[in-house]
Design brief:
Blueprint: H1 9-19, H2 32-40, H3 48-70, H4 72-76, H5 95-102
Length: about 100
């Protein structure tokens, strides 16, 4: 069947739908604008985790940077060894022992 044919079911359905009028009231109900404004101004209560999560990430980043800055001399291979020396790479895989050796 050809969909352009006026006797095609789709064409008859769309022609019938165009003739129907919507007789419903199109105005907003009383107090609708007030409810919309009240919902827009509603403040969400954030959980304790959400409130402090960004601060915790910032503090963790600052502590990581501070630890690298404090131990830069040792990690870069400055006076007293470090990881930059090729003979020491892989010799001590224990991170706790490496940190404890820094205190000597």
């Amino acid at each position: 069947m050809n969909p352009i044919d006026p006797k095609h079911p789709w064409m008859r359905l769309t022609a019938a739908a165009r003739t129907v009028r919507d007789e419903r009231d199109v105005t907003a109900p009383f107090g609708f604008a007030t409810r919309v404004v009240a919902l827009a101004q509603e403040v969400k209560v954030a959980s304790l985790f959400e409130r402090f999560a960004l601060r915790a990430v910032g503090i963790a980043c600052l502590l990581a940077l501070a630890s690298v800055a404090v131990n830069y001399k040792t990690l870069a291979g400055g006076a007293g060894g470090g990881l930059a020396d090729d003979s020491d790479v892989g010799g001590n895989d224990d991170a706790v022992a490496l940190v404890l050796d820094l205190t000597d």
